[in-house]
Amino acid sequence: xxxxxFRNPVVPLRxxxxxTRSRLSVDAAVHxxxxxxxxxCLRPETLVAEAERFCAAFxxxxxxxxxxxxxxxxxxxLVRGGVRHFDCASLTEVRLVRRLFPEAGIHxxxxxxxxxxxxxxxxxxxxxxxxxDSSAELDKILDETDYARDLGLVVRLALPKGExxxxxxxxxxxxxxxxxxxxxxxxxxxxxxxVSFHVGSQCLTPTAYERGVALAGRVVRAAGVAPxxxxxxxxxxxxxxxxxxxxxxxxxxxxxxxxxRLALPETCAVWCEPGRALVAAGQSLVVQVLARRGxxxxxxxxxxxxxxxxxxxxxxxxxxxIRNGRSATGGGLEAFGLFxxxxxxxxxxxxxxxxxxxxxxxxxxxxxxxxxxxxxLRTGFNGFDQIHRIEVGDPPLIxxxxxxxxxxxxxxxxxxxxx
Length: 419
Hints:
The protein is an alpha/beta fold.
């Protein structure tokens, strides 16, 4: 196999501006910098703690889904917390992880990959695990790896439409009969074989994992294959103001019970692919109010920037006000919608976002739970592409369901969850 390996450093897409490692509080950083551009506030210690918590709770192998947030500072914090394996969906992600962590386990989990991506991942970056959901993809992987005998081939199984916030049943996954056939074909050519599925993003129902495990178990039995890998995918939820998930322990218990009922071989490794659950709490966004019109606030970030999910998907984020040199005038929290800075009328986030009724131009708003699919979705549309990045020592605006926030944050949580 002749291939020129790509060795240049890789930087995540749309990364702008240097990060300031102040470890100040968010309030102190805002009052010191008086930012007129959006400001991302990374919480490294929160990320470390979330990784430690998840790795301690899940008894198998934890693969971080890099697409959720590929910031090198995020990846380093997760490794400090115990993550050693990465779910990569592109060659860019493979290159990034291999550059940062030469000994890490990298698994190419996208079911449809380009030939050059497979070729380079295999020959240059030591990737041996590949997901597939069709005969064409199986043939492609075998062709581009010269029928290597040390491959791990994992068949992605399609699940019926579920109850997750973001359903993922329509694009990838083989139907049970096809998955059964693919498992048998993979067993004939690969050193390791497995089955995977995905219950959907932000899945609040532990029984969804039980149903996925049971269906995957039926496929394994029908194929007559002893799997080496049993991957329960991602979808592990986090808290938002309108969404309180069950404790991680309840979800893990549901998975453990369902897997135990399958009586898999003792040598079979159980995997999961969390993204949001590991990083959502680890980053917040500070925006400035540009204008107020009734119950709508015009701010300097929006759906074409860090707040993409607050638009079309109507995600509500925890928020709090940071006043610009003003004293509070009393009054309770009121519901506001937000307009982003672009000239597009679709740049709108209805929320509602609960803030003090006297919010005014020049004030700042901190929005939490934006470590997942926030900065990575930013675009340069309309020229609003600048953002500051700092590291802070604050706890997140919302604690995980398994934890209790410090007293000084309890009022914030009551406010953001009260709608």
